[in-house]
Each structure stands twice: as C-alpha cells, then as structure tokens.
Amino acid sequence: MTESTHPLGTVPQDELIARADADPLRPRFHFVSPAGWLNDPNGVSQWNGTYHLFYQYNPEGAFHHRIQWGHATSTDLVRWTDQPVALEPSAGPDADGCWSGVLVNDGGTPTLVYSGRLGEQELPCVAVGSADLLSWSKIPQNPVIAAPPAGVDITAYRDHCVWREGSIWRQLVGSGIRGRGGTAFLYESRDLRSWEYVGPLFIGDASQGDPAETDWTGTMWECVDLFRAGGGSLGTVPTSGDAPDVLVFSAWDNGDTRHPLYWTGRYSENTFEPTGLHRLDYGGRFFYAPQSFQDQSGRRIMFGWLQEGRSNAAMIEAGWSGVMSLPRVTTLADDGSLVFAPVPEIEKLRRDHVGLPVQELVPGAPVPTGVSGNQLDLELDLQLEPGAVLRLGLLGSADNGVSGSSKEETVIELRRTTEGGSQGTLRLDRTQSSLDPTVDVDDKAGPLPMPDGRVHLRVLVDRSAVEIFANGKPLTARVYPTLAGEHVSLTAEGTVRLLSFDAWTMAEIFGEARNLFP
Ligand code: DQQ
Fold it and tell me: Which residue of 34, 51, 106, 450 is 20 to 30 Å from 365, comparing CA positions?
C-alpha cells in the first residue's frame, strides 16, 4: 500500500477509496474518478465505436497536483469502464503534470496532443497510442513547440484544439496577451510533430465589460474548442445554410477559473471573425473547461467539469473532488446560439416513473408531487402567463414537502417577464440549499427565451450535482445538503399551466469496487 506524500493529503489509497465511497454527496450516475481529484475532460472521442473519456486526474488525493490522464471507456455514454492511466508525468517536459489536451486520429494511429507542465510552464507534447488506446508512448521530440510565440507577453499558454484540413494539421493553443485579453494561437503542421506558428486566431478584449460580469472574457482562454455548429468541416464553405463556427473557451484570470463562453462567427483562413459572444452554461465555473467531439452518428457531444463548491479541506476529507458532466448534445437554435440536452442514452437509467396530470397550478399552493429522491431525472412542460413564476424545489428536507418549512431546499425558478413576450429568466436559488455555512451558495441565473411562455424543463439531480436544461439553456451547479432531504416540490405565482410532468429515479452506473490505478 502506498501513501500520498503530498502535504495536503497523506491518505492511504484504500482509505481514499473508502472515504469517497462513503460520501452521500458523491454522484452515482455521473462519471467521477475512482477517488482523488478529477478536473477537465480530455481526449473525448469515439474510436471504432467505443467512447473514450480521458480526464485530469490526481489519484494521490482530492487536490490538484502532479496531474495524470485518467481514462474510461463506454459503449453507450452511460456506463463507464475504468482503464489504466493513459499519461503520467515523467522526466522531461511533463515532469510536473500532463495537463489538458485532445485525441486525434493520425492516419489510424491514436495520438494525444497535451500540455506538458514543467515548473510553472506548460508546452505542447504528443503521445501515440496502441490500437486499443490503452498504452501510450510519449514521442522523443517533446515538447513539439519549444516556447510560446516570441515577443508576445503572455499570461499563460496551454490546452489544445487540433483538427485536419486536407493534408495539414492545424492547432490552437489557449493563451492571453498581457494588457489585451484572451487568445488562441494558431499553428500548422504536416506530421503533428513539427509546428509552424501562424498567428493569433483572434484576440479578446479584457477591457471590455465588467470583470465581475458572467460574460467577461478574461485575461486568458483555457481549453479552446473550435468546431462548426451543425456538423461540417472547419475551413470548408458551409453547406448547411449559415451554420456558424463556434469557438468555445473557458475565461480565466490570474488563477481564477471564471466561466465557459463561446463566440459564434466564421473561421476562415487564419482568423476568426466573431458575430456574437454567449454564455455556455449559466452555472459559470460549475461547468468549466468543456471539450466536445463529433461522434460516429454525427452528433456534437460535450463534456464539462463540475467543480466543487466546498473548501479544499472538505474535499480532502471527502477523499474525492470533481464530477464529469453528463455528455450533452449541442445543436444550433434558430437565433444562432447553441442549445444543449443530455444524450438520450441517459434515459436507460430511468426507473420508477411518477407522472402528474395536466393542471393549472393554484398560485401559492404547493403541489404534492409524490416524488422524492436524490438521484432523479425530471422532465416538465410548462406554460407561464406574463409575470408568472414557477418554483421547482429539490433535495428538500421537510417531512411532507408542502409545509413550506423545509430547512434545506434547492430551488429552480422560471420567471416570465410581466410584459409577456418570449423573455424570461432561469435561476437556481441555492441560498437555502445547505446548512453548511462554508459552501458556495451564490445565485446562478441567465436569460431564458420562452416563446409564448412555454418552457421545456429537464433537471438531472445526482446528490451534489444538478444539471438543468430550460429550453436548451443549461445551468449546472453543485449543492451540499446536510439533512439528506429528498423532497421535490412545485409552487407557482401567477398563472402557470403544467402541461406534463414526468419523474424517474436514476440507477447507479458504478456497481463494483473501483481501483485508483485500474
Ligand atoms: N486545467 C488544466 C489546464 C487547463 C485547466 C490543468 C482548466 O490544462 O487550462 O489541470 O481547468
């Protein structure tokens, strides 16, 4: 038995696993690492039919240190099989960590492009895989780019998006230019090993907007991800109408992981011409560092990292940290923005259906839903008249859920503007979600288009993880109830019609004991 030697957590391996397993707040149908620390999704892909999810992993304990690439595979995007660690630091340019990156298919050879960390610097590195993607060899030429672009004062430099155009590979590396804003540097290569710097694809302006705002673009862009919405290949003339190109990034500032955003626009030649900036998830840092891929059926599927909202000490005590989002399919909405939904495969975990009849909710009178649980999939269709508000309470600790005396409750609020029209707000009120005064309970909210007051609401609750999709707009967050509450309540202000209500308990995805080093 080995022990962690890091001062943050000297915990024997089996103790780490036991602690993680015993935590009632650990999700049961989201992917989590066997124990220890998990952050960004990496190398997300489908290879010969099998889905691969690599992730930033520290099996030493629930803290970010000496990061390796954990690896899991799935045939259905629902249940995951742990695989051996794919990359771990070794003497050379990744001695202090194998940070985020991607998987590409180099003429049949699985190839990882990732950020090797040495000291305080990250540089692009490459590893090639066996045909089953289970063993990886770092190439001797690492780092494949020796330094960030000369003469540019950068804030940071890491993370990769790599794609092929004809016989040429192109790569973006996330960065920021001091005094200006976040950026993505563009490179070209014929062999993934020798790269030529082309220039910044696009430079953000950190002086625009209020740094406190949820759409501030930050001083550095982490985990840049460029793709064409609605399918189609980057760099070609779009065939499907005006399908925009999308540049996803995670806005970072001086060590602060702020929020995921995306630009829509057109990538052409060596530049990206933006047309719009959008928030990717209203939960901000709780859906961070997303990475996407196109699966073999043509769907654009995205994963993100659900960071914790509890203290470093609480994570270490719990023995685990970080949740992978459910895979979500992204499609293009009529207004040119993206909409998201969990992959339909997730529905196979549904058990014990509960439905409610169509009804107009009586204002102020909570509806007994008959639903309780902390692993739930809820699907509602609603119609709100102007000024109406619908509140869906989760993880409520009151006995009957109708007394209004819940000591803890996490509340999703849908609100239509008094003027009516198609505008409203989606809000997650976590202020009563936990009696623990140390956890993050900040409000999360964003604009919600609701044509004619109609809302399709999907909510996935998995203990401390909550993923909400309202008319395709996602809001993801973490909650840490202390009272083991499971009640689901429904209340309305003004006129709200419940057009459908379906609820299911969700089955667990990990049956057997897991190993820190599969
Ligand atoms: N996490 C990785 C970096 C990336 C950041 C390190 C985003 O590569 O920039 O674990 O969460």
Answer: 450
